[in-house]
Design goal:
395 residues, Alpha-Beta Plaits, 2 domains, eight-stranded mixed sheet, 14 strands
């Protein structure tokens, strides 16, 4: 303990830091690292800290942040189902969370009958272990914070009192990070990363938008209506999710993003705010199309082995100016792109069915693309008076 300071007084500099600086740290990992650097100055012999946060996330159930003295903070993702594994069942983390109380273990007394977490901390040199739940407003599983020390004498009663107080002190900041994580996850999951960040940054007024230049992608499954009639709903759901995952993977790998799901259709885009980059961006769109073709071919081989019909699809590609913004009612909005370029991409995709090719691109796309494309001649697109020349990939 710092000379002349009683329990509680040691945390005064930490409290001041939380009020003035700590609450402004942008990420949980950075917050934990800076917090523990401040804690080391108090004289409390903390050696290891873990903060486990439950998430609302389509892929992850929890996120943990592990700090060890002299090391960088580790961010540890926990997949769904972690609560059913031996790493959680019977752990002090489960004990503290589900019983809603602090737990403490003098590690010299820990043996083979204790949970592996405690045995591992002891093996690493730990002497005392303290875990407690963090009180926050959010419903559901609460965060749990664990502390360990390698001090020969373990934690003192004053140390335990200060660590308990510290968890209450940081609760508001941790809750803020949880709320931000939930908001970002929901926005990014349902709107996409770029649009999600625009929304979180305040672009939520009806009619608010901006004109941008972009490469538009529209893809669609063939005979989806027929599959809905022939297949069980669970099989349709599996097929659709697998297909959409492949589309998302192909777009994401080449700098594109899904803007909207329209049933089995996907509207995607590749931002091209500077026209100088259009040759590179159109090339990226073709790269995404080629990857999707390859991935679907591999998926169809697996479907054929299981006696299932192949998946067929079409992609329309166009480049042009679109309005990117909010449409809807005063209290229910959709962030989308509108404009003739969007319609052209959709019409090109529809024409792939007639021409029996997987990809069609417009003349505008061809004009700025440096990769070879093959003309399929002039054709009428629905809603457009004059026939237009369309292009596809070389065989």
């Amino acid at each position: 303990m710092n000379a002349g300071l009683s329990a509680g007084e040691r945390l005064a500099p930490v409290a001041e830091w939380l009020v003035h600086e700590g609450r402004l740290v942008p990420t949980p990992a950075a917050f934990v690292e800076r917090l523990m650097n401040k804690m080391l100055q108090t004289g409390i012999p903390v050696w290891r800290v873990y903060i486990g946060l439950q998430l609302i996330h389509p892929q992850l159930q929890a996120m943990g942040f592990m700090w060890r003295r002299g090391e960088k903070v580790q961010t540890i993702a926990r997949a769904y189902g972690i609560q059913f594994t031996p790493s959680y069942i019977g752990s002090p983390m489960q004990e503290a969370r589900e019983q809603g109380r602090a737990v403490r273990y003098r590690l010299k007394d820990v043996g083979e009958e204790h949970h592996v977490t405690l045995r591992d901390v002891k093996a690493d040199g730990g002497t005392d272990y303290y875990a407690l739940p963090m009180r926050i407003r959010r419903d559901g599983p609460v965060p749990v914070v664990t502390f360990a020390t390698d001090s020969r004498t373990g934690f003192s009663d004053e140390d335990i009192a200060d660590l308990t107080c510290l968890v209450d002190m940081i609760g508001a900041v941790i809750e803020m990070h949880i709320e931000r994580s939930v908001a970002e996850t929901v926005a990014n999951t349902y709107l996409g990363r770029q649009v999600g960040q625009r929304i979180l940054n305040g672009a939520i007024r009806r009619g608010e938008g901006e004109e941008i230049r972009a490469v538009l992608w529209f893809s669609d499954l063939r005979d989806f209506t027929g599959m809905n009639e022939r297949l069980e709903p669970s099989e349709v759901m599996e097929l659709l999710n697998n297909y959409l995952q492949l589309v998302g993977d192909a777009l994401g790998a080449h700098g594109g993003e899904i803007l909207k799901f329209i049933g089995d259709g996907v509207m995607g885009y590749f931002p091209a705010e500077d026209a100088l980059f259009l040759p590179m961006i159109t090339g990226a769109a073709l790269g995404a199309a080629r990857r999707l073709m390859s991935d679907i071919e591999a998926a169809n081989e697996a479907r054929a082995a299981g006696g299932r019909d192949p998946v067929r699809f079409g992609i329309g590609l166009h480049v042009g100016a679109v309005t990117f913004g909010n449409v809807g009612t005063e209290d229910r909005l959709d962030f989308t792109v509108i404009g003739p370029a969007v319609n052209r991409a959709a019409r090109l995709e529809s024409l792939t069915k007639e021409l029996k090719v997987p990809v069609l691109a417009s003349a505008d796309f061809k004009e700025v693309c440096t990769q070879p494309l093959v003309s399929m001649g002039f054709h009428h697109l629905r809603g457009i008076v004059d026939p237009v020349e369309v292009f596809t990939l070389p065989s």
